[in-house]
Amino acid sequence: MPRSKLPVVAAALLLLFGPATLLAGPGRIQAAHPAPQDVPTAPDGGLTVSLRNLSSTSALEPVLTQALRDSRSPGFALTVTDGIARIGNYSIGSGESHQGDVLVLNGDADLYGRLSGNLVTVDGDITLHPGSFVAGSILAFGGAVHQAGGQVTGEISTLGALAPVDQDAPAIAPASPLVLALRNVAGLAGIFLTLLGIGFGLVLFGRPNLEIISDTVTHTFGRSFAVGVLAQVLVLPTFGVLILGLILSVVGILLIPFAVIACALLVAVAVLAGFLGVTHALGEKYTRRQLAQGAFGSPNSYRHVVTGLIGMILLWSGWAAFGWVPVLGWIAFSAAAVVTWFLLTVGVGAALLSRLGLAGHFAGRFIPPETLTDEYLWATPQFGVPAARRPGQHKTPPPVR
Length: 401
Hints:
Mean pLDDT: 79
Number of domains: 2
Low-confidence stretches: 1-30, 162-167
Order of helices and strands: HEEEEHEEEEEEEEEEEEEEHHHHHHH
Number of helices: 9
Strand content: 5-15%
Structural class: alpha/beta
Number of strands: 18
Strand order of the largest sheet: 3-6-9-12-15-18
Distance between the termini: 151 Å
Largest sheet: 6 strands, mixed
Helix content: 40-55%
Radius of gyration: 37 Å
C-alpha cells in the first residue's frame, strides 16, 4: 500500500471503531477499559459473590451481570469471599504471586506470575503468558482465554457473551410497592376472567351436572373432602400402575400416549368442575340468604358462579395488596393458599362422588333431576307442606243417634 494512503486508512479505522479503541495484539482491536482500580468491600448485607465453585455458572451469571452493571455507578462496592475484585485491566507480573480468588470487571487479565486461587473476568479476556501458573480454575465471562504457554491446574472455561450494558444507564431500581400490588391485581383479574368464561360455558352446556356437583358439596361436605384427599394421594400411584400395565402388555404400549392424554384431561376436568361446583355452592348459599333478607334479583346458576368466583378472588385480595411486605405477604399468601386447597379438595371429591354430575343420589335431594331448577326450588318446599286443622274442626262432633 502506498505511504500516502496510510493516514487515510488510519483515519477510517478510527472512525469505524471509535476513538476509545486500542490495539491489543497483532491484528486484534479491543474496546478500551476503564482505568484499573480496586473495588472496596461491600458492607454487611451488600453484594457478595463467591468464586470457589466455577462449575455452577447458572448461579454465578446473574450475580456477575449485576456486578458489571453496578460497577458503572459511583460508590460501587463488592465483596468477594476469600478474594479481591478489580475494575479495569489486571495483571500479575513475572516473579509475583497472589493468594486468593480474583474477579476482574470490565477488563483483561494478563498473568505472568503465580496465582493461587480462581480467576474470573467479566467482559474481558484472560491471557496466560509463558511462565505463568494458576493453582485453580479460570473463567472468562463474556470474553476469551488465550493460552500462550501458562499452566492451569483446574478447569479453563468461557461463558458466552454478556448482554449489552448501557454505559450511562443507572442501576435498575426495584419495583415500588404500588407496582407490585398492581401486578398482583392484574394477575388475579386475568384468573377471574378465565374461570368466569369457563364457568359460563359449563352453565350453558352442562348446567344439570354443575348443579348436582354443587348440591353434593352442600349436602356431603365431609365425605367430599375425604374423597378429595384420597384422590390426591392415589392419583400418581394409579397413573403409574396404569402405565406399567400398558407397558407389560404387547398392544398396550401403543396406547400409552392416548392414556396419558386421557388421564391429564380427566384430572383437568375433575379439578375445574369441582372448583366451579364449590364456587356455585358458595354463591348459591350467599345469594339465597340475600334474597331471603329482601334483596332484589332472582337466583340462577350464572349469578351463583359469579358470586362464588368473586368470593374466591377476594380471598386473595390480602396477598394482592400486601404481597410486597416480607412477613405479612407470606402470611396472606399461605392463608389464601390453604383455604383454596381445602375448597378445591372438597370440589374434586364432590365431582368424583357424583361422577362429574352424572349420579345425583349424592346431591341430597329426592326429587327428579328434571325439577331441579332454581325457580322450582325457590318457590316450592322440597319436603311437602305441613298439615293443619281447618277452622271450627277442633270440637268433638256430636254422637250419632
